[in-house]
# Entry
Amino acid sequence: MSSVKHGFTLTISGILRAHYGSNADQILDGNLLLQYLNIKTRAANRGSKSRAGFANHYALYVLVEDYVNKGFHKKTGYDRYEGAQFSALFKRQRELPFGSKLQNHALNHRLNEEFKKYFPTSEFLPIIRDAETNHYWINENLLKITLGGKNLNLAVAVKEIIEAYIKARQSAFSEFMEYCQQLIGIEESGQAQATEFIQGLLRPNVDARVFEIVSYAILKEHFSGQQIYWGWSPDELNAEYLMLYKTGRTNANDGGIDFVMKPLGRFFQVTETVDAGKYFLDIDKVQRYPITFVVKSEDSVKQILAKVEAQAAARYPVQAVVKRYMQCVEEVINIQELMQRYDAVLQAGGGDNVIKEIVLQSRIEFNVQADDDEASAEADTEEE
# Structure
């Protein structure tokens, strides 16, 4: 068996056995592309809250699918094939489940770079690309294996493995969404169940996207009950409730700020790390405007701030610089603080709103179709 073993390895072995019988384990051990897929499918059985990571799977899938559709798994001549057009591959990627917002990075370089990281001595990379014509090929050398004097082509098995992974991830997320739906409308007697559910989504090992969605849902409801008065003169004041807005894709590496509060103009950034360099980079993005950091950590707020300041002092020998950056950290909200605010939301009767917001944002993030009676209401929200 491959050195990497996890729940989905059994599925991979089962698919290989269906094609190659008792040689399945030997084939898995002897082919780098299958070993790569074995590594990349570890998330299949971890539930909906682990990161799915479809980009590299789909880059590989659309090229292998093109290869099979053209019949090259049964015939020779792939070396003379003109290649698949980028536009066709990119369109196909986005038609696949959870793929509607994928970018071109995996096709262009990320898949090859990651493959090289796992197998630095391999003479082959999965994707061959002609930048001039923008045509792509799967590296056929990684699809072929010789066993017992027979030449085998693994393309169909590779395609089926990725399809099985997609199906497993869909199933896990569907269960998550169904559970969310079940929790909508929990009566007061069932608040303990809701609290346990939310606590499960606020753990350090949870997918960053889920953590960001849950953080937003809690904070949005928490602040929605707070009212401020403002105006252009003391005699003409406006009463307005605080409103938190998401400003972009969940966990997107887009250089943006995650949440913005109206009318106070507070900025919120969700992060998985306690890294002064990242915090200060976020602060510099907005010209040292104060930012509240929502941190996926069980450390206390004091511990988080102490770590950031210690890292900053090691990086910047000038105390005035460190002080200026630290003053831009308006607030730190850790997992414990999020749960305390969620408890306050429950006491105020807003627990259902938190669950509904999690369902809504999860549907948008994971491209899950809403029920017919809700789809039209959410259509505008789901468009980028």
Summary: The radius of gyration is 25 Å. Residues 116 and 227 are 54 Å apart (CA to CA).
